[in-house]
């Protein structure tokens, strides 16, 4: 475990030394308080509007940051030749992969926390009510980042850096927005097209399930705890799938 | 000296495909053995297959065919790597870490107990001459200083076997002296060292045995004394006014003076040829003598035209 945490620590340290967290804090500030400026226009049902805009933008930013951070981990180690001294130590490639995964997941979770902390402050300042579902939404957003980090890291052992970033961004943003459309399209399809849509629907992780922001926008009550538990198990299964896939592929990589 | 084999490579072939789709046959039937407590130099011209062979030895690259064993096990297993210290050919270290932070991370991965870890790092920093520079980011280090960090992580935990790829690359004379001392210290403790180098004077000073490879297979191997015993070179001093424009193979100019130049001939035959050339140019041979050959002479004589 110390080896995994050691590698995770270096992953996080790299981000801090590159000043990534400061950029995130400033970015979050601009986005969140930018959304808050709408209060000047006296929009009807202001609270819902500000919440919707802020949630949407911060969700997109979290996904983009997570994908970019995870995608560079293994390819950079290989191209910068920092991997050789690591793999020469008594540490399995699975451990290295897990270290990268834990580091990236913690970073992505930190980004979500910073964004949502600033959202929380904004809503308090604007006297916008915050329900229990807000905190559930933070939790689910964080565990959705675990899946995303595993998926991007796993696929970074298969695709080139550019292709991986593009595929993962498209997949995660598409699943976020077009899943319902896929269900609707499915009813119109038959034959090969139906198989393709079904395959995509079942293979790709459904990150939209982890998005409770609309419920918070419309002041829904908190979701039952079993839903959170089920989604946590779902996240663990999907993360494990991508970790196994990625670490097996990474173990066979010729250096 | 014990003859227990530590490294065994049998009929190793490694092919790989470049990004352009070209298949490279980097190693073509390599056979070698390194025994316990030996210090073995692995030499050869650029592109001979040294680094690729070392990668196979570390389990970084799967052989196309043949077998590689270290400590009688397959390379790449965690158990084997507990006993190996490795310095890659071109190692770069996380530029955002300080030397101490980098070594701390390698110490965690090397299973150095938490208690006493900082003392181990202090000792290593002193050994490689980085005391006082340990809190500086690696980003600002010269090539030589990076190599020192690399050597420190390689010798961490006093492994039974050191595998070093281009160990003295980029080091100044003082650092080379330090590295030599570290390796001598390892040898004195009965550890096994296998290293590749282009610095043949280092190889001569450190090695019990040399393995010379070219085009992916062993050309010559043997104890240094045996290789050089019958290898002599001939020093020929000539009058500068009689210098021809080019020389036959096996003749190397050594030093220039105002009115005379020293040449070394690798063989009796080369010396005869050179004499004739000097005579044809109405030149004068001022002095001739015979002396023991160096590993460099041996290398040039054996590899000849391939030296880059």
Kindly report the average pLDDT value of chain A: 85
Q: What is the radius of gyration of chain B computed over CA atoms, rounded to a whole number of angstroms?
A: 22 Å
Main beta-sheet annotation of chain A: none
Instruction: Bin the strand percentage of chain A.
Output: under 5%
Domain module count of chain B = 2
Shape of chain A: globular
Beta strands of chain B, count: 13
Order of the strands making up the biggest sheet of chain B? 5-6-7-3-8-9
Sheet-strand content of chain B, in percent, reads 25-35%
Query: How many structural units, i.e. domains of chain A?
Result: 1
Structure description:
- The complex is a heterodimer of chains A (255) and B (308).
- Chain A has one domain (2-251).
- Chain A is 79% helix and 0% strand.
- Chain A has helices at 2-17, 20-36, 46-79, 83-87, 93-125, 132-155, 161-188, 192-203, 213-217, 225-251.
- In chain A, helix 3 (46-79) packs across helix 7.
- Chain A starts with a helix and ends with a helix.
- The mean pLDDT of chain A is 85.
- Chain B has two domains: 5-224, P-loop containing nucleotide triphosphate hydrolases (Rossmann fold, 3-Layer(aba) Sandwich), CATH 3.40.50; 232-292, Alpha-Beta Plaits (2-Layer Sandwich), CATH 3.30.70.
- Chain B is built from ten helices and 13 strands.
- In chain B, strand 11 (251-256) and strand 12 form a beta hairpin.
- The chains are: A mainly alpha (255), B alpha/beta (308).
């Amino acid at each position: 475990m110390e080896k995994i945490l050691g590698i995770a620590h270096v992953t996080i340290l790299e981000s801090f030394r590159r000043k990534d967290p400061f950029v995130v804090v400033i970015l979050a500030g601009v986005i969140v308080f930018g959304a808050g400026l709408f209060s000047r226009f006296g929009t009807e049902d202001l609270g819902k509007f500000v919440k919707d805009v802020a949630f949407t933008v911060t969700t997109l930013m979290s996904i983009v940051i997570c994908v970019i951070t995870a995608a560079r981990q293994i390819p950079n180690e290989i191209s910068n030749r920092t991997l050789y001294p690591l793999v020469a130590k008594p540490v399995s490639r699975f451990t290295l992969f897990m270290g990268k995964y834990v580091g990236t997941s913690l970073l992505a979770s930190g980004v979500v926390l910073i964004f949502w902390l600033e959202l929380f402050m904004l809503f308090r300042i604007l006297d916008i009510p915050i329900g229990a579902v807000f905190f559930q939404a933070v939790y689910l957003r964080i565990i959705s980042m675990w899946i995303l980090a595993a998926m991007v890291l796993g696929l970074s052992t298969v695709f080139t850096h550019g292709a991986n970033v593009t595929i993962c961004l498209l997949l995660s943003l598409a699943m976020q927005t077009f899943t319902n459309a896929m269900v609707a399209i499915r009813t119109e399809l038959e034959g090969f097209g139906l198989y393709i849509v079904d395959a995509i629907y079942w293979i790709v992780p459904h990150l939209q399930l982890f998005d409770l922001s609309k419920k918070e926008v419309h002041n829904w009550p908190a979701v039952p705890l079993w839903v959170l538990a089920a989604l946590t198990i779902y996240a663990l299964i999907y993360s494990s799938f991508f970790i196994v896939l990625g670490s097996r592929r990474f173990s066979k990589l010729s250096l | 000296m014990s003859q227990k084999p530590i490294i065994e490579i049998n009929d190793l072939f490694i092919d790989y495909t470049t990004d352009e789709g070209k298949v490279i046959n980097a190693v073509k039937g390599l056979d070698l053995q390194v025994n316990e407590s030996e210090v073995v130099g692995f030499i050869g011209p650029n592109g001979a297959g040294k680094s690729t062979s070392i990668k196979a030895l570390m389990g970084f690259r799967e052989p196309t065919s043949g077998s590689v064993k270290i400590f009688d096990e397959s390379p790449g297993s965690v158990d084997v790597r507990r006993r190996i210290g490795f310095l890659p050919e071109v190692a770069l270290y996380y530029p955002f870490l300080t030397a101490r932070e980098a070594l701390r991370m390698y110490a965690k991965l090397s299973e150095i107990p938490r208690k006493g870890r900082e003392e181990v790092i202090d000792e290593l920093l002193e050994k490689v001459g980085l005391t006082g520079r340990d809190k500086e980011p690696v980003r600002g280090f010269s090539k030589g200083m990076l190599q020192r960090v690399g050597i420190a992580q390689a010798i961490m935990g006093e492994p039974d076997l050191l595998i070093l790829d281009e160990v003295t690359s980029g080091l100044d004379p003082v650092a080379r002296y330090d590295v030599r001392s570290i390796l001598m210290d390892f040898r004195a403790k009965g550890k096994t060292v296998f290293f590749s180098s282009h610095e043949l004077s280092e190889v001569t000073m450190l090695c019990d045995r040399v393995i010379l490879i070219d085009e992916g297979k062993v050309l010559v191997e043997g104890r240094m004394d045996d290789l050089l015993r019958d290898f002599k070179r001939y020093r020929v001093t000539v009058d500068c006014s009689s210098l021809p424009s080019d020389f036959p193979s096996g003749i190397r100019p050594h030093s220039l003076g105002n009115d005379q130049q020293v040449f070394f001939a690798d063989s009796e035959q080369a010396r005869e040829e050179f004499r004739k050339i000097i005579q044809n140019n109405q030149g004068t041979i001022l002095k001739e003598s015979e002396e023991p050959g160096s590993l460099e002479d041996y290398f040039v004589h054996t590899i000849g035209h391939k030296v880059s």
